[in-house]
Predict the 3D structure of the following.
Amino acid sequence: MSAVSIPLKQNDYLSWLGKITLCNVEEGKEKLKKMKMGQDFCQELEQNGIFYTWCIRHPEVVSCIESRHYYQRYQEYFQTDYSICKHLLVQERKGEKRIFLIVVEDEKEVDLHQMQEVLNCSKLEFVSKEKLESLLHTYSGNISIFHLKYDINHQIKLVMDQDLLHKKLLAFHPLYNGMSVFIEPKYILKYLKIIGCQKKMISIPEKQYVLKKVL
């Protein structure tokens, strides 16, 4: 299936250009560099026979909530259901200090305490920004399953919610959080195979809230 790229709305373009005008030259160069990286990566996917259904360019976002806000503007193009994927990069606080990338649908709230039992590991905590940059060459708010291409020593254990395999399309950032690709699960599995990433598919439990009686 050929990829279809959806541009920004006119107002988004004007807003983006306005920000570029106000920022200094170095910031502008950095933004353009990240945009090119995203475009080049999309070409890399296609060259490896990994085809996405839609590619959207939008202002940089740092949360799933922000992403959903922009995606809703293009609902007329999608004509199908999609799931935004949330990424949690965590590590054991003690012991082996194993590192896990947990990928779930954005609306599922993950209980890290429950995940300790599921993964049979010690207490989990989020990795530092320094470690995030070292392992995946990225920063908080811009973590994608695609960044695992940089984990050449396979230090990170990927844990995916098996419910994602039943979705029609999954939304990920192609290394840059100013772009999003909507892709079928089968192509994500193909990508993981190409980069040699071992995955663990499980039913990730959702956080449960217990109402306490107040006397």
About this structure: The CA atoms of residues 36 and 176 lie 9 Å apart. The mean pLDDT is 85. The two ends are 61 Å apart (CA to CA). The domain at 4-202 is CATH 3.90.960.10 (YbaK protein).
